[in-house]
Amino acid sequence: EVINSSFDAIDADFSELIFNNAIVNESGNDCFDFSYGNYLIKNSNIFRCGDKGISVGEASTLKINNATIKDSTTGIASKDFAEVELNNGKIYNTKYCLKAYNKKQEFSGGFIKAKNSTCNETNQFVLNKDKNSEIIYNQ
């Protein structure tokens, strides 16, 4: 559990980590920020992130099961060859629920697959992606 972080609440690079029952409340920037690794988040509640609820980049993979993300600019962002799989997600009060894009020149876009998930209490996700990225939801 992380509460009132000034910057990124949880920032992991070059790792293989599993998070069980994670709670992040109030972060000045991203609540979770992952790079260059393999990650799993099981059962999470993520609230009031200054930028992204979950940010994944630099060829990382992330699987998320049972997540609630609320009150952030972006719910989940995948960039720079990162791959994200979301199962049973609830994303509320965000500008973008899912965002996939290319940020760094040496990489390309991101990928997100969301299943059994809702955005702002509907199945109509607010998406943002560039031409090098892909988002698949509720299929």
Commentary on this structure:
The structure is a single chain. With 139 residues, the chain is an all-beta fold. The radius of gyration is 13 Å and the shape is globular. The protein has strands at 2-5, 10-13, 16-27, 32-35, 38-57, 61-79, 83-101, 111-115, 118-119, 127-129, 134-137. The chain has no helices and 11 strands.
Coarse shape: globular
SS class: mainly beta
**Secondary structure: number of strands:** 11
Unreliable runs, pLDDT <50, ≥5 residues? none
Count of runs of 4 or more consecutive helical residues: 0
Concise synopsis of the structure shown:
This protein is mainly β. It has strands spanning 2-5, 10-13, 16-27, 32-35, 38-57, 61-79, 83-101, 111-115, 118-119, 127-129, 134-137.
